[in-house]
Structures are given as structure tokens and as C-alpha cells.
Design a protein that fits this description.
This protein is α/β, with parallel strands linked by helices. The chain folds into three domains: 75 residues, no CATH class; 109 residues, Aspartate Aminotransferase, domain 1; 258 residues, Type I PLP-dependent aspartate aminotransferase-like (Major domain) (Aspartate Aminotransferase, domain 2), CATH 3.40.640. It is built from 15 helices and 17 strands. The strands form five sheets. A seven-stranded mixed sheet has the order 2-10-9-8-7-3-4, with helices on both faces. A four-stranded antiparallel sheet has the order 13-14-17-16, with helices on one face. A two-stranded parallel sheet has the order 1-15. The N terminus is likely disordered.
Length: 480
């Protein structure tokens, strides 16, 4: 086998920071690129130029003659060491008590999920483009779509989109196409990341974004009635919302539909095992993020978004849809259908520029839901609900120094997430608890509509009673 370093002398100009001053043997970094100076000379000779400068002479000098101040290149060994040092600073959620939520949740993932999605057939497969490709992959997507529809009550679902935030804007764009209107109402109490994505998309698509305030944790119905008009395409809410509160969806749907607009709601699939389905509540398009179903938090991604809708709107669904049909022998077969993406014949008339789907993450959701089943899913939701309400009651009993107490920011019913208002700043509260490896929740300071002394706390089945009581006792010990 030919050695990577063809001529060690070619690297004599490289200064090695790892050189041992007591050693006579130079320590040279193993290069990423195996090209020696001789290799480069042969390439330049082949191209008929004398130097790299000659090769780049068509580029203006002012664009070539500048200092990048790039540090010395590192070898693969050095890079690995650097990343290991950085990763050692991470603290696993399994070594901390975490009550963080806000769209990304620490939930139990059965071992069967990892076993299935790590199979080479799934793990290395690329996103399907051809209608007939890989029946196994297509069937998995079809079953994913089916379970999404079962939980949301909707008639159709797509193969997935990037995450919950992109699902929000894709659903809003979908509503704009259906209604042929350009005004989008967004509840301020949806996930702030989704709001940021919507602002970016709306600017590019020349759409009007109007924000609806919230009162006592839920959409302000009086303001909503004033803001909605005959130019409104849709309203986007969350059920439950970012603050964990349960919106009066029936009333909202009635107001929205009177104006001819559509109601879009981001939903939590686990909570839907207990709560009424979006279809029963009058929601037209149900969307969300499937991270909490078989996918680790993963430092914020990759996750998987989903979009489901009523039958009348199916042709406006973005991305891919897998359908069930029969082959020429009459056997059951799966195929991509309604491919209204820009990469096919639709081009500028495509329903979406999202040209992929999160197949592997969607598969994790499918395996998780299949394994849990309706009773397992309901059990997890009930545990989260009951423990969250227990924790909220215990926190309300705590008196801080000076006699001031914690309180819930909103009296509206909540599911498994709630906003706690504390007598000190949220940053101080979180900082002191982090010192003892407790992640008490998300600091809401800086998010429109919330206060500097409010913390969003989430409870899942991973928070056992020992952790919850430890959390409460630690707050008493530090702040009382």
C-alpha cells in the first residue's frame, strides 16, 4: 500500500506546536490531504500554469490579497482530542435532574427503538425520490402517516418535515394557498422558535404576520375578534400552548371559521392520548414535532415535524405523501403520491421548497408509538400530568426569604408544563440550582409576553417522585 506521506521533506516547512523539545525525532501532524508539494507541482504542470497565483489570475487581486488569520491546520488526531475535551464539558441528562421543556423533552425511549432504526436497511437509506423505491422504507412512512392520523383524527398526513417550527410555517403557507389570502395570525404563546421561522418565511413570501396577545396564559379572544377580517388566511395556536395552558379551542374555532379562515394548531401527540383530538375540536390542520416520541433531545436536533389535515386540503400538503395501491399482479404496494415538490414537474408552482423528509426520525416515532400502543401512551401522559400538578402545588407552598411565595403565572388549566413566577430573577433561580445539577426549567426572560421572574417547568415520566421532592427540598434549602 502506498504511504500517505510520500516524502516527509515536503512537510519540513510546517511548524508543529506539539514538538517535544527534548526529542530529536520531529512530530509531524498527519495531514487530512495527502498531496505533497510534488503532487501539487504535477497538477500545476498538467494545467499549464507555474503557480497557484497563475491559476487564480482571473480573480481580481483585491479579492486574493487579504489575510485570513487562520490558525495552523490540525491533524485528525488533534481534532479528535479537541472535540473530546469539549464533549467532556457536557453533562448527560441522566446525571442531572431536568425539568426543561419548551418543545424539547427528556422522555423514556424503549431499547427497541434503537434496535430497529439502527438496522442498515433504514439507517443508511437515503430519502426516497422515485415513487416505487424501497417498499420497506415506503411502508414505514405510510404507517407513520397512519398513526399521525389516528392520534390527530385527521384524514391525511405527510411523510414529515424538518421539525415543529417548519411545520408551523408550512401549514400557514398551505392555508394561504387554500384561502388565497395573505394575512396570517399567530398566537404569541406558541413556541418562540416557530415565531422566528415564520418571520423569516413571511418576509420572503411577502405575507402579513399579525400577532395575537394572550391573557391568563391563553389567546385573548376579544383581541382575536378585532384582528381577524376577510383577508385572514389562518390562525396558528398550540394545544397545549408554549406555557403549557390548554386553549379554549372550541371558541377559537368558531371565531376563525366565521371569517372563512382556517385554524392551525401545533399539538403534542402524547397528550392527545388523553385530550380531545384536533378534528373533534374544529382544527383544520394539525401539526407538531415528534421529538418526544423515540427521539433524543440531541442538542436541539435533528427532530421531525408532521403535518396532518382534513381530506379537502390533502392536495395542498407539502413534501411527500406515501399511498397504498396494487401492483400489476394485484398485490399490495406502496408508492409516493401527490409529489408536488419543486424537484418534480411543479417547479415554481410547488407547494413547498422542502424537498426531503426526516425518514429515520419518523421511523423512530413509528416504532415508539407501535411499541407503546394506546394504553402505554395514555399511561405516560397520565404520569406526566399528575406529577406536574403535584409539583406545581408543592412549589406554591414555598416561601422565599422575606416571606414572598412562588405562584403559578396563570390560573388557566395546564397539562404537564406550567409557568412558575418566583420572587427573584429567573436567571438567579436557575443558576443556583444548576450548581447542584438541577435544571429547573427555561428562563422566559426576553420572550415576548413573559416576565424576567418566570420559569417554564416541564414534567415527564423521567421525573420520578424522588426527583420531584428533591427539587422542592433544594429550593427550600437554597432560597428559604
Amino acid at each position: 500500500m502506498e504511504t500517505i506521506v510520500k516524502n516527509p521533506k515536503d512537510y519540513k516547512d510546517q511548524k508543529d506546536q506539539n514538538q517535544d523539545p527534548n526529542s530529536k525525532i520531529p512530530i509531524r501532524p498527519i495531514p487530512y490531504l495527502p498531496h505533497t508539494n510534488q503532487d501539487r507541482k504535477e497538477i500545476l504542470d498538467f494545467l499549464g500554469v507555474k503557480s497557484v497565483d497563475d491559476l487564480l489570475k482571473s480573480v481580481p487581486k483585491e479579492l486574493r490579497n487579504f489575510e485570513l488569520n487562520i490558525p495552523r491546520g490540525k491533524s485528525e488526531i488533534e481534532i479528535i482530542e479537541e472535540f473530546l475535551k469539549l464533549s467532556s464539558k457536557n453533562i448527560s441528562l441522566n446525571k442531572q435532574i431536568s425539568f426543561c421543556g419548551g418543545g424539547v423533552y427528556h422522555r423514556f425511549i424503549p431499547s427497541v427503538v434503537g434496535e430497529v432504526i439502527s438496522k442498515g436497511d433504514f439507517y443508511t437509506a437515503y430519502t426516497p425520490y422515485q415513487p416505487e423505491v424501497s417498499q420497506g422504507t415506503l411502508q414505514a412512512i405510510y404507517e407513520f402517516q397512519t398513526l399521525i392520523c389516528n392520534l390527530t383524527g385527521m384524514d391525511a398526513a405527510n411523510a414529515s418535515v424538518y421539525d415543529g417550527a417548519t411545520a408551523v410555517i408550512e401549514a400557514a403557507l398551505m392555508a394561504c394557498r387554500i384561502t388565497k389570502k395573505k394575512k396570517i395570525l399567530l398566537a404569541k404563546n406558541i413556541n418562540p422558535e416557530a415565531i422566528a421561522v415564520c418571520k423569516t418565511y413571511a418576509w420572503g413570501a411577502n405575507l402579513e404576520l399579525v400577532f395575537v396577545d394572550f391573557k391568563n396564559g391563553v389567546v385573548d379572544l376579544n383581541q382575536l375578534k378585532k384582528l381577524i377580517d376577510d383577508q385572514t388566511a389562518c390562525l396558528v395556536i398550540s394545544y397545549p400552548n408554549f406555557a403549557g395552558c390548554i386553549e379554549p379551542v372550541f371558541e377559537i374555532a368558531e371565531i376563525i371559521h366565521k371569517s372563512g379562515a382556517l385554524l392551525i394548531s401545533s399539538v403534542d401527540l402524547i397528550n392527545l392520548s388523553i385530550l380531545k383530538s384536533p378534528k373533534d375540536l374544529g382544527i383544520d390542520i394539525a401539526i407538531g414535532d415528534g421529538q418526544s416520541l423515540g427521539n433524543f433531545p440531541n442538542y436541539g436536533g435533528p427532530h421531525v415535524g408532521f403535518i396532518s389535515c382534513l381530506k379537502d386540503f390533502t392536495r395542498q400538503l407539502p413534501g411527500r405523501i406515501v399511498g397504498l395501491t396494487k401492483d400489476i399482479e394485484g398485490k399490495r404496494a406502496f408508492t409516493l403520491t401527490l409529489q408536488t415538490r419543486e424537484q418534480h414537474i411543479r417547479r415554481e408552482h410547488a407547494t413547498s421548497n422542502i424537498c426531503t423528509n426526516q425518514s429515520l426520525n419518523a421511523l423512530a416515532v413509528l416504532v415508539y408509538l407501535t411499541y407503546m400502543g394506546p394504553y402505554g401512551l395514555k399511561g405516560i401522559a397520565e404520569i406526566s400530568l399528575n406529577r406536574a400538578h403535584y409539583l406545581a402545588k408543592e412549589l406554591e407552598k414555598i416561601s422565599f426569604k422575606g416571606g414572598k411565595k412562588c405562584s403559578l403565572a396563570f390560573s388557566t388549566p395546564f397539562f404537564s408544563e406550567f409557568v412558575l413566577e418566583i420572587p427573584i430573577s429567573a436567571s438567579e433561580f436557575i443558576s443556583k440550582l444548576l450548581d447542584i445539577n438541577i435544571l429547573p426549567g427555561l428562563d422566559l426572560n426576553g420572550i415576548d409576553g413573559y416576565k424576567t421572574n418566570q420559569v417554564l417547568i416541564a414534567v415527564t415520566e423521567m421525573n420520578n417522585m424522588e426527583q420531584i421532592n428533591c427539587f422542592v427540598d433544594s429550593i427550600k434549602k437554597i432560597f428559604s
